[in-house]
């Protein structure tokens, strides 16, 4: 089920994120007509919308861990990986290079790092399940 969930959120995230980027200017134009504001918004959408599917992977893997009975671990991983990494980034990297691109970059970075941590913990937790309790499914 986890593999299927990752496939679904990845597909939807890539398609919808791609659509958001393709139609970025008209979408942003709904809120503001200033070309400078729209240009900044388009830049942000490239950083956020294209890799947004990695946030979906992060959520699927955290939910899968909870389904295996581990509720505190995915919470701590998400807290440290998303909040902790972003705060660390702001006080170190962004403090040295205060630009919007540097600030925007931490979002996909935190999603990827947190997703990888969730995947590693899920694989380790799944190994603790007796073989006879694992469903016979290619998606599990």
From TrEMBL:
Keywords of this entry: Membrane, Transmembrane, Transmembrane helix
InterPro entries reported in the protein's UniProt record: MATE_fam
Gene Ontology molecular function: any one: antiporter activity
One GO CC term, this protein: membrane
Annotated TM spans: 40-61, 68-90, 102-123
Tagged with keyword Membrane: yes
Protein name according to UniProt: Efflux protein, MATE family
Organism in which the protein naturally occurs: gut metagenome
């Amino acid at each position: 089920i986890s593999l299927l969930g990752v496939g679904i959120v990845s597909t939807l995230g890539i398609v919808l994120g791609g659509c958001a980027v393709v139609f970025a200017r008209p979408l942003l134009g709904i809120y503001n007509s200033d070309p400078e504001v729209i240009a900044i918004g388009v830049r942000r959408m490239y950083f956020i919308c294209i890799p947004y599917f990695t946030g979906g992977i992060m959520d699927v893997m955290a939910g899968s861990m909870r389904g295996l009975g581990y509720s505190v671990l995915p919470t701590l991983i998400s807290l440290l990986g998303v909040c902790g990494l972003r705060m660390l980034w702001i006080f170190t990297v962004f403090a040295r290079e205060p630009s919007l691109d540097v600030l925007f970059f931490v979002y996909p970075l935190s999603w990827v790092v947190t997703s990888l941590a969730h995947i590693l913990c899920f694989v380790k937790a799944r190994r603790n399940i007796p073989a006879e309790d694992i469903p016979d499914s290619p998606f599990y």
